[in-house]
Amino acid sequence: MEKNRLSKAEALELYNRNDLLSLARAARAVKEKKSGNKIFYRINRHINLTNICSSNCPLCAFQCRADDRRGYTLERDDIAKILDDARSVENLSEIHIVSALHPSKPFDYYVDVIRQVRAALPMVEIQAFTPVEIINFVKLTGLSIEEILRTLIDAGLDGLPGGGAEIFSSRVRQIICPKKATADEWIEVMRTAHRLKLKTNASMMYGHVETVEERIDHLIRLRELQDETGGFQSMLMFPFHPANTELGKKFDIKAVGAWENLKMLALARLILDNFDHFKAFWIMLTLPIAQLALAFGADDLDGTLGEEKIIRAAGSTEGTSIDRSTLEKLIRETGYEPMMRGAVACD
Questions:
Q1: Of 23, 57, 202, 335, which one has the greatest count of Cβ atoms within 10 A?
Q2: How far is CA 50 from CA 14, 78, 150, 155, 318, in A?
Q3: What pLDDT score does 126 carry?
């Protein structure tokens, strides 16, 4: 824990001062203190099992109802084909699985997916199911959070993604995701995961109906949980993509610009003094902004992805994959040294 950490009032003052270059210098100094000249990335593959969802959040363009002709659900043979392709990828170190809340698929389906991935790719890290999905499994089965996580760990799970946090404000969640897990539930899943030694990320989605104060409250609550558990590996900042969403149409929301994205990244890096790593998730930010983010406190470009459907559905214009040589070129242009993460995270 840092001795002179930012208070909410000080963070708000820095935001309102709008001195982007000063924020960049301060955030970059924190990044270099924690990870030196290194910028991390990994060779990974995303799998989105289904887009059929019982939550139907207005913030999401990916989800659809069970009777929608756009709906799909991957079954065992579909997943086997994806894994067959993944086996041919050199240095593959992670399978990342995030999906919708299917109204009728049983918990055993998801456990079997983890077993199938582990059997096909025994050396990769499996990061799967956000806390929102874990809470859905709790509701489906009547099991506790810990029982759900232990079952998935026994099947081969290594970690949880940080998605679904959105903004912790209950006011905001009632507007953007009223049927989804609450902030307290999200936090309790992560607290339990950390106790069970699962690797996890944290996140925040901004740029919709939240206030700046609510953004800062969200970051401070993450900081408090990290003080308690020390279990978060990295932080991801997600700008909201309003295109194709009910929320964007209802409130006439325009996507935030590069200035806001970089300012929030740098400010979050300063607030979250107990987080070692910050990802610049290029499919959300675009590659040019993700590259610039390396001068604003980010030290990780996530990975090659392979395929990603959720963010594309919301209007992202980036491709769904990138090759290793392109990632390394982007990093070297900034003066930093690319470091490929393996199945065991390197610091």
A1: 202
A2: 41, 11, 23, 20, 21
A3: 98
